[in-house]
Amino acid sequence: MFFFEGRRMVSAGVKRFLIPAGIIAILLAALGGIRHLTLTFEGGQVIYRIPAGAQMLALGVGLYWDVTCTGPVTMVDWGTLTPGQTKGVTVYIKNTGNGPMRGSISSDNWVPDGAGQYFDLTWDFGSLPLEAGRVRKTTIYIHVHDDITGITDFSFNIIITGTQVE
Amino acid sequence: MEILLAELVVVLALVIVLLILLVWWLLRKIVLVPTLTVAVDKAEYLRGEVVNISGSLMDGTTPLAGKSVALAVVPPTGDAYSLPPATTDNNGAFSSKWGVPADAVGGIYGVVAGAMGVSATKTFKLK
To answer: Which of A7, A106, B32, B75 gets the highest tally of CB atoms within 10 A of its CB?
Structure first.
């Protein structure tokens, strides 16, 4: 009998705790969503989002997410970008050839056409040749121009090319 | 009546616990939880010496045989050395060697192994 009385007491106590906690959790979740939306449209500023379909193409080199070269890089999601912002993504470039090579980076297939004029694509690969079988940690940066207009969504290809040193 | 209800609650609780244990056991059978380890035979090396690399890939206490293990040696500065992948034997063990180049920079090196989405690192010093 005591057990059931005690259980009812505990149950009531749990309910007293759970109901306000549930309400607070729902409010926090809602606030989180509002905060997210506020950030997304902060100051009425348009946020440009690059879709996850941004392609990474490697010619004469291997392009990976890790130094052991187990995860090939085929796509990069830059997330949300604001005008004036620079974002970087770190990849590992492996010389799969038989001799030293130099690397270069380029872009093409900008959608919409001409969007490339509002972006700068750079990397810190450097000018030193990459020896055969070696792996270089490299960060690729994208910078959005302050004066970007008329583009709300875009995609493009990044091409990493390895050229054998003569 | 109330006592019967209490017993029912206890039985239900036991059934739930048993079900959770069963699901956990089934998941452990279905889902692999690989553990990768890597080691080297010495703490310090000189240029020209050979670094003997060894390690294991296990799922709990079960060896994961025939799996490819990617290996790299990461120097303190400069480009990493990519090693040919090793394959685990019936005990889940793998081994490899890396000859320290004559022009290698001194400092702390890391041997990084990667397999089945997990990685492990062991460091050594090059004098």
So the answer is: B75
pTM: 0.73
Say if residue B23 is in the same domain as residue B50.
no
**Residue in chain B nearest A136 by alpha carbon:** B79
Q: Is A2 on the interface with B (CB under 8 A)?
A: no
What is the ipTM for the molecules in this complex? 0.75
Strand residue runs (E) in chain B: 34-40, 44-45, 50-59, 62-63, 68-74, 80-87, 93-99, 107-115, 118-126
Mutation choice for B interface testing from A1, A2, A8, A70 by most B CBs within 10 A: A70
Residue pLDDT, tens place only, A124-166: 999 999 999 999 999 999 998 888 877 777 788 999 999 998 7
Beta bridge partners of A93: A63, A136
- On chain B, the residues whose CB falls within 8 A of the CB of A131 are 79
Q: Are residues A27 and A51 part of one domain? A: no
Same-domain pairing of B87 and B98: yes
For chain A, what is the domain count? Answer: 2
Size of interface A-B (CB pairs under 8 A): 42
B115 chain-A contacts, CB cut-off 8 A: 70
Q: Which domain holds residue A88?
A: 46-164
